[in-house]
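FAQ

Q: What does a record look like?
A: Structure on top, sequence underneath. For example:
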């Protein structure tokens, strides 16, 4: 299962809000919803997120085993 926990940590460290992602970088509110609910995104969106936060894919997402995710 994909988790965007690294994204939220990176955004917090760099003081980037979801409002900034929408208004400065052009992300849709639907994309933000998908991120908040650990839904899939495409590679283009991943690339845009990396550019927005000045990071790499590891700063945006990680993969967790299904059992680990269910324990949360």
């Amino acid at each position: 299962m994909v988790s965007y926990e690294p994204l939220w940590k990176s955004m917090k460290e760099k003081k980037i809000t979801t409002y900034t992602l929408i208004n400065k970088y052009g992300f849709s509110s639907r994309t933000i919803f998908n991120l908040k609910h650990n839904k899939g995104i495409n590679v283009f969106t991943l690339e845009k997120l990396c550019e927005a936060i000045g990071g790499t894919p590891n700063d945006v997402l990680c993969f967790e085993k299904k059992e680990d995710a269910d324990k949360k």
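Q: Is there anything notable about this one?
A: The chain has one domain: 2-71.
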